[in-house]
Amino acid sequence: MSERTDDFFLSILIPVFNEQANIQNLYNEIEESLISIKHKEIIFINDGSTDKTLENIKLLRSHDES
Questions:
Q1: Overall pTM > 0.90
Q2: Which of 1, 5, 27, 50 has its CA 20 to 30 A from that of 57?
């Protein structure tokens, strides 16, 4: 019996701190791993980063919304 992946919503919460170099790769790997799940969200929680982590998260969001 195959498992249905369209009848639930998956939320992934990821706390980050000074991870500017890793955000894009992590996002890509999660998206690739969960490609069969239609209803999902990835939430990055910026924990006071002092590098460009927040800017990278905003860039991902702007590309994901289009």
A1: no
A2: 5
Report how far residue 50's alpha carbon sits from residue 37's, in angstroms, rounded to the nearest whole number: 33
Contacts of 5 (CB under 8 A, 6+ apart): 36, 37, 38
Of 24, 29, 33, 16, whose CA–CA distance to 61 is shortest?
24
Write out pLDDT tens, residues 18-29: 999 999 999 999
- Is-contact 5 38, C-beta < 8 A? yes
Tokens representing residue 29 in the block: 């790997």
Q: Tens of pLDDT along 44-65?
A: 999 999 999 999 999 999 987 6
